[in-house]
Amino acid sequence: MIKDFLKDAVKYLPAQIAPGIVGFISIPIITRIFSPQDYGNYSLAMATIVVLTTLVGWLPMSIIRFYPVYERDKKLDLFYGNILKLTFISLLVITFTFIIFIFIIKTHISSKLYLFMLIGICVFIAIAIFNVLQHFLRSKRQVGWYSGFAIWKSIMGFGFGIALIFLFKLGIESLLWGIILSIFFVIPFLWRKVIGNISSIYSKLNLSLVKDLANYSFPLVIGNLAAWVLSLSDRYILEFFRGSQEVGIYSASYNISEKSIMLLTSLFMLASGPISIHIWEKEDKKKSAEFINKVTRYYLIACVPAIIGLSVLSKPILNIMTGEQYFEGYKIIPFVTLGILFLGLQQRFQAGFMFYKKTGYITFTIVASGILNLFLNFLFVPRYGYFAAAVTTLVSYAFLLFLMIILSRRFFVWKFPLKSLIKVTCASTIMGIVVYYVVNNLTTSVPINLTLGICIGALVYFLMLILLREFSQEEIKIFHSLKQKVLKQKR
């Protein structure tokens, strides 16, 4: 199944690269057009959209876990119908509740932020519907279609937003309208691809199915809300104690770090999640443990050098990618990237809880880490600002990983690739030293040094892995086979 994972990972890669490229393109443009205050308000609106989408997230998670079961039992019509009905009900309840909340706090927030929140409701509805339909494609491992729709949403969402800014001279809220427009155009095609010939989507709710979905997913929703506290709540605390200026500076650097590393962590989650469930349901515990071990090893090989590389290059990257008002945020990048590495690593340890449907433990660990993060933020952010927010996020993610390791071993034990971690860390450290020298000494041009540093660093890293004998002959053959298939497709 590791070949299936690598194939799916290659297919998912464009869907992850597209948002990353859009993010890297958008940040230099947006931070040069709009002030940190405007960017701060936009970031708060996006953070709110994330938490609203998280509340509907119990349905996509249920799709991933239960689709193989209902496919096996030949009851997909029932499954589709109930998921779609529950989506509509969830959207109605959450939207109505949030509108009331916005009207209550209207007098306590700026008029611009209030407008962003109202537009954010529409963005939330569009994204929630899109995500539910997307996860049916993911469960069926229709990776090409999944990637195609995801790429459209990322590229056209930004494209429509930029068009509104430059053609109609609108504000930064145009980026929100761009997301809505991109999803609006593609939803009919996505619906047709997902629903197809399913005939009984209008059947009544099956209470037994709803109960199974809720018991499995609601704890995960609580956990994801706590994860939102871990990753995004610091923006609200910064806004309250330090103002939108610091929110904007913090968000710009955080987003550059997150879009880089989350590209990799999301790729591994997307590709490994459905396959791990299929292995557990259709094969045995030993095969599942072997699969998690191999996926974790590949995760370390991909992410550790990215962490060190971004940390070494943080200052020149910020100089190139942001406006002058945002430059000082470079110092938080090492903390943010390492924290996201821990976040992705703890996902590997969630596997046992998923297999045994013990999702309450995931909720507990994330809630505990979220509470720690809030406590540390309230303690240090008022005095030290956005730098403290970055450090407390790292500490909280490390605590989350520690709890996940300790608790998960009660249910599912697998061998952690410690030798690979040591080799990867050694190779990445040497790469980092080389990159630092190239970027700071080669030429007087920052963009040229940065480009050459990345290319030379990648070459040094993989040469070191080969010298350390990290890759097996079987893996080299698989990589070569995948490369040949990619080249044939391009032709």
Q: Structural class of the secondary structure composition?
A: mainly alpha
Percent range for β-strand residues: under 5%
Query: If helices are DSSP runs of H or I spanning 4 or more residues, what is the number of helices?
Result: 19
Q: For the CA atoms, what is the radius of gyration?
A: 22 Å
Q: Which sheet architecture does the biggest sheet show? A: none
* DSSP E strands, number: 0
Q: Uncertain regions: pLDDT < 50 for 5+ in a row? A: none
User: Helicity range of the residues?
Assistant: over 70%
Number of domains: 1
Tell me the span between the first and last alpha carbons.
27 Å
Quaternary:
single chain
Order of helices and strands: HHHHHHHHHHHHHHHHHHH
Molecular structure report:
The structure is a single chain. The protein is mostly helical and 491 residues long. It has one domain (2-416). Helices cover 85% and strands 0% of the residues. Helix 1 (2-33) runs parallel beside helix 6, helix 5 runs parallel beside helix 7 (174-195) and helix 10 (244-282) packs antiparallel against helix 11 (285-312). The mean pLDDT is 84.
Write the layout of secondary structure elements.
Layout: H1 2-33, H2 36-55, H3 58-72, H4 76-105, H5 111-139, H6 143-168, H7 174-195, H8 207-231, H9 233-241, H10 244-282, H11 285-312, H12 314-321, H13 333-349, H14 351-355, H15 359-384, H16 386-408, H17 418-441, H18 446-467, H19 473-490
Helix pairs in contact: 1-6, 1-10, 2-5, 2-8, 2-9, 2-10, 3-4, 3-5, 3-8, 3-10, 4-5, 5-6, 5-7, 6-7, 8-15, 9-10, 9-15, 10-11, 10-13, 11-13, 11-17, 13-16, 15-16, 17-18
